[in-house]
């Protein structure tokens, strides 16, 4: 298994990974394409899992902002993550997330947020975000699915406010 940065040669396969992982629907595959074309895209945070020259998993992390009054903090949002159904439950998702979080630290992005399954993400350090004074208005989701991972101690102590997902998420 190779975990590596996505390249343009992977785009067709990455589309397919997202399409099949999300039950043969295009929404997430298209989301990936819109984010790639936006200024919030960080190429090194689009990561693929490759097995015998086949892309079997993909993780996209991209930039977003937390806004409080006139203050803005750049953060990372994790979405989407997809592993082909016949390759799930083999730890590929886990490897992609660990690699993504490691890279975030390297690039000094210390706050990662997501909307996701509350039983899957806590093992990577994600915790319910609203308890840190973080909010999400455009997506109405229960407290436990809006999560944050702090990659540097106390990083969240000065970051409060509303997470604004970029336009790409609302097309
Ligand atoms: C969510 C998703 C990316 C996870 O990918 P994955 O590669 O299956 O994830 P992992 O293998 O790391 O972990 C999945 C589970 O399988 C278990 N598992 C890992 N390796 C295993 C193995 N060798 N044998 C059996 N089970 C295993 C893990 O323990 C984990 O279960 P747990 O969380 O209860 O502990 C994948 O299920 C997916 O693509 N789903 C559809 C798309 C989606 O919903 N994406 C998330 C929203 S953006």
Give an account of the 3D structure.
This protein has 171 residues and is an alpha+beta fold. The protein has a single domain (2-170), classed as Aminopeptidase (3-Layer(aba) Sandwich), CATH 3.40.630. Helix content is 21%, strand content 36%. Strands 1, 2, 3, 4, 5, 6, 7, 8 and 9 form a 9-stranded mixed beta sheet that branches. The longest helix has 15 residues, at 92-106. The N and C termini lie far apart (34 Å). The model has no long low-confidence stretch (mean pLDDT 97). The structure holds coenzyme A (COA). Residues 21-22, 79-83, 88-94, 116, 120 line the site of coenzyme A. Pfam families: Acetyltransf_9.
Total beta strands = 9
Tell me the fraction of residues in β-strands, as a range: 35-45%
Which H/E pattern describes the elements? EHHEEEHEEEEE
Please compute the radius of gyration using only Cα atoms.
Answer: 15 Å
- What's the CATH class label? Alpha Beta
Protein name: N-acetyltransferase
InterPro entries: Acyl_CoA_acyltransferase, GNAT_dom
Pfam families: Acetyltransf_9
